[in-house]
Amino acid sequence: MPARDIPSDEHYMRQALRLARQSPTPPYPNPWVGCVVVRGGKIAGRGFHRGVGTSHAEVDALAQAGRRTRGATLYVNLEPCCHQGRTPPCTDAILEAGVGRVVYALRDPNPAVSGRGAEILKRNGVQVAEGMCAAEAAALNEIYLKYRLTGLPFVTAKVAATLDGKIATRRGGSKWITDAAARRHARMLRGWNQAIAVGINTVLSDNPHLGPRAAGASEPWRVVLDSALRTPPRAHVVKSGRCIVACTRSASPRRRQALLQAGAQVWSFPGVRVPLRSLLRRLAAKGILSLLVEGGGEVLGSFLDRDLVDRVYWYLAPSIVGSTKSRAAVAGRGVAHLSQARRLRNVSIHAVGNAWLIRGDLSRWALS
């Protein structure tokens, strides 16, 4: 085979990155990981991680390769783990299989790993190379990286608004801003996130379902910001069986008990309003790493005011509502000067149904 036709480390790492994306559901709080084992210029084994409690990608790939692991090169997009969790350390499996070289894209920021996995392999005679396709690997695991380095979930804001930035008329009418095709696309976002957050006014005015409404899609947690516990026990979000109502400690004990009996979880916080950063930390501690904020305007404004939004999906409908009394898509305090306006990066714009979808990144954790 001519030298120019021999696949490179980059080629095999891209194979591993593609495999990582094959998990049918997000593996959180674990990362997306894919792995290939190569011997004699041919792929001997492939694997990817499917979620908590399942085999890691390296173990699957090594099992598929069988006896062909001796002296092989293993490519994986994240540093192999070296600690005992729900599954044994991947470093043990790699050493037992007799792999001669390991190429990984990104160091795992998990304090239980963070360079220790690579060091164990080196001490036992395995050649180790780090950094191949690191930018792509970081983008793939942007949610996991933010969680490990900040203790917070990745927050995506989703808005459907008119050309003049309204989400409801002066009488509260909000159905529908966009057409059915655009709404179907927006519901797909729910399937990509572990939890959906709304304010109590949205629950009271729309009684939303907040589910993906798609066969086979996982049901997200519904998170309601409701300082005074006004959420009706028979609301759709509560009846979903996966509802967290965040309130303040001054909320009515009677209402709290009614929501608990209806199957909701009630989280109480100090202060007169639910502290968003504290709420996010508690969600992350529960294993919820990806949160979609759907509104209303006060909730979205509060997240933006506190610089807690990582990415924005904005569905812009070709209609005009008017009136200073109609509801704005973003409320909150806002900025005093245009120079302080939050500006999206990596912006893409395309038609979805009757709307234009504007997608862009806000925080340094959004790596697309």
Explain what you see.
By secondary structure, this protein is α/β, with parallel strands linked by helices. Helices cover 29% and strands 24% of the residues. The chain has twelve helices and 16 strands. It has helices at 9-20, 57-65, 90-97, 116-123, 134-140, 142-150, 180-192, 200-206, 236-239, 253-261, 276-285, 297-305; strands spanning 34-39, 42-48, 73-78, 101-106, 127-130, 154-161, 166-168, 195-199, 221-225, 243-248, 265-269, 290-295, 311-316, 327-328, 345-352, 355-361. It has a nine-stranded mixed sheet with strand order 11-10-9-8-12-6-13-16-15, sandwiched between helices. It has a five-stranded mixed sheet with strand order 2-1-3-4-5, with helices on both faces. Strands 7-14 form a two-stranded antiparallel ribbon. β10, α10 and β11 form a beta-alpha-beta unit. The longest helix is centred in the middle third of the chain and has 13 residues, at 180-192. The protein is elongated. The two termini are 36 Å apart.
β content, as a range?
15-25%
How many β strands by DSSP?
16
Task: Name the poorly predicted regions.
Answer: none
Indicate the radius of gyration in whole angstroms. Answer: 23 Å
The largest pleated sheet is described as: 9 strands, mixed
Q: Quickly give the structural class.
A: alpha/beta
Distance between the termini: 36 Å
